[in-house]
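LOG
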Amino acid sequence: MEESTVSLIDVSGDMTDAPMTRAERRDHQLARILDAAKICFVRSGFQGASMQQICAECGMSPGALYRYFPSKEAIIEAITEADRKNDAAIFAEMMGNPDPVDGVVQAAMAHIRHIHEAGKAPLFTEIRAESMRNDAVDFACKDIMGEVQQGFHAYLQAAVDRGEIDPVVPLDQLMPILVAIGEGMAINDLPANGVGLDNIETVLRAMIVSSLRPTGRSGTQD
């Protein structure tokens, strides 16, 4: 039976940490492990980082760690799953934007900001490099990237069907190109290298306009 969460007051009158439920304890342990793994992967690379190093970083015994994650690949899957949730939120906003150019630019900028503000570029780079030599990591990356491409494709195909855009090449060819460009921007963390977000958006919008070729026709027009 899970513990109730209650507020406690110590003798000084200050609030103390309330006991955590079983689910909260598990979430806390998972967060500790993932944070430690990210540090180790960036510091030593995926190949160089060991499960023992991750244990030491998060102050956890190997037995305890393996109860949560049987391998480094399983940790990568958990990290990419968190990114999947962030992408879902970005897509939800994009789908609500009736202008396909604005929608794509909005989604791309949200992703670039997220990677920059969370300081994820080094980790993202390491995961993508490992995906080129590790089938399990490659599968996790392709799984999430496939969802990204499918989401963009469905959004833009609807705009094509409404006669709002006339892409310069077929969408099934255009989508991998646009996703690769976005991924490159994220990996290079342009804002950290002195490139302003406003300038990134200006260039990105010009690229999207030239790629999607808006017709100027509203989807409500005959």
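LOG (cont.) second protein
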Amino acid sequence: MKNIIVTGGAGFIGSNFVHYVVKHHPEVHVTVLDKLTYAGNRENLAGLPTDRVELIVGDIADAQLVNRLVAKADAVVHYAAESHNDNSLQDPSPFIQTNLVGTFTLLEACRLNGVRFHHVSTDEVYGDLPLREDLPGHGEGPGEKFTDHTPYNPSSPYSASKAGSDLLVRAWVRSFGLQATISNCSNNYGPYQHIEKFIPRQITNILSGERPKLYGDGKNVRDWIHTEDHSAAVWRILTKGQIGETYLIGADGEKDNKTVLELILQLMGKDPKDYDHVNDRPGHDLRYAIDATKLKDELGWQPQFTDFEEGLADTIKWYTENREWWQAEKAAVEAKYAKSGQ
């Protein structure tokens, strides 16, 4: 694969994937297709070689543009999505347009041009799992983690739109023979993540002299993975994955939100209890947990960033050293949360 398109490549997870490809695969040219909504940022691609990375500002639902770009590509890696649950509860329409119509547009272009397609999705399509007090490694039983056979049960407009896009991919594989794969990943953390999301919001609150905020009692569990491990897994699936298959990406990183917030405070030299409880999100999923056995056994992938505290410390350092990247947006983000008591 000499020429790949990365949709949403100026966003958080997408830009980290672009950095990964540039670093590890010097033979590959990357065309980033990004609408540059609030979640996309040119600065996420700053410093990358211009002869290897080209940014095209455009909409994945623009069929004419997408067809023109895909005709020159060997593969499309589809990260672009409206992805913030809270926003989907306020206005679901952009989620339907981007996540469903946009994915359909890309699928059609890849079908017509015979181009390999990889669809990056989320574990939120499966809904949630019952809470467990013993996290993790205490003898998980059947149904304790998501697998590629777990039934879809999305909880929010965001996760429903992603579930729909996954099903479109599966249908195009079966109906048209599209050369496609799907990955569903657990929660990512690392540099370049928008400050509306949980970990960077808490870090930037502390750096701004504000008290961090915790939804409800903070017992909701997320399965954290460093974005570098996610990038390596996607590349492995793109190049080695079996067509038509779904692979779950996770690093056995289950932590409840309260534990994560208190660790952030501790690492930043604050009292671990120095935060405020705020209104819980409507329909807030209880627990996510990924079983990545298939990815590990079939494709030989293993996570490298397995020390969550170390990875979190590196993430805190990045936001501390890159205030100019997030500071201008901070007041507006917090004002938006304040309207809903969060």
